[in-house]
User: What shape does this take?
Amino acid sequence: MALSRQQMAMRVARELRDGYYVNLGIGIPTLVANYIPAGMEVMLQSENGLLGMGPFPTAEQLDADLINAGKQTVTAIAGASIFSSAESFAMIRGGHVDLTVLGAFEVDVQGNIASWMIPGKLVKGMGGAMDLVAGADNIIVTMTHASKNGASKLLPKCTLPLTGAGCIHKVVTDLAYMEISEGKFWLKERAPGVSVDEIASKTAGEMVVPEVVEEMGF
Amino acid sequence: MAGFNKVVTTYAEALAGLHDGMTLIAGGFGLCGIPEGCIARIREMGVRDLTVVSNNCGVDDFGLGLLLEGRQIKKMVSSYVGENALFEQQFLSGELEVELTPQGTLAEKLRAGGAGIPAFYTATGYGTPVGEGKEMREFNGRKYILEEAITGDFAIVKGWKADRYGNVIYRHTAQNFNPMAATAGRITVVEVEEIVAPGTLDPSTIHTPGIYVNRLIQGKFEKRIEQRTITQD
Assistant: This one.
């Protein structure tokens, strides 16, 4: 069966390491914060200028001056720091963030990502996504493997305007975990009960399938 | 106004000299840390054809949305303009021009503008529509695009506390774009929650040194919350 949003976040959380600084995008990436393994210390970076983001506040803690990049009210953990947007993107662009997790509309075999603009639809803006993908070495894209009408989102070449070029190497979808290198998708793991054939039928870009494809356990 | 006393008592004084067609830089992220009093005054002044540089454009009836309501903005330079129906309407009708700029590039354009650096190379936006038509250069095998700095005729900034010298500190994530905006205005107007006596603020904790600030005013703030998210305990 395809992974739920929670399971996708759980799979991404397995890529966390003790001492990581992590930026989580809006949507499924945000859920990753709920699955940080016990005993592991991870600092969440929010690109509006907060390193050490905590959970949502209680009604008593609520503070209009403390929000995340999704404009939601949050808290700061003990050990947090707060800084300007220029400082925040210096961290991001300078490659100091250990892991970035974000959603996308499409990725392709060259590691290109399209996540911000659908021609003909109203464009709201890229926010910090272009800076995040340009600055990070370790990025995980989370998205459904195919659109609702069955069209693959893992393509030979992105059809939508790009957010970044050649920057994506890891993708967690509802069907599989894939890596991208040498102009190919490399199937690494499949969702429980999902066949390699199903994954192959929903992957438009060239995909390399190893002899044994491990099934994810939850 | 004498010597290093940057304090003005009315928003009319604070924004004197702002005219049609000027470029206005505004601090803030969403509705967090926005110069509410300056925006309200500019709405009242009715100046038009402004180019406004700000990460976002407020919501329909608050923040920079008020200037959209007054049809005072000709062009917006922003990274994300999502939460605003008026914006959508004016953009689609061609009344409003928009230059979408990656958030980090926008912050750096302002920082550079205030620091006397006319342009810089960044990998952000290379290979995307943002990079189209811009000079490209390779450093150490990686491709970068040239982005130009931004300065403004006026910058409007929201601080937490300041002294009459214009030394400013910000509170929590209400800091955001405000420190860069403060450096990039030919005339920088800062509104704060509290003006304190000189010496009250620890010099080593000042975020914006007074040299960047021309006019300082104590304001009152609604601090509207855009997304009220609460933990049930």
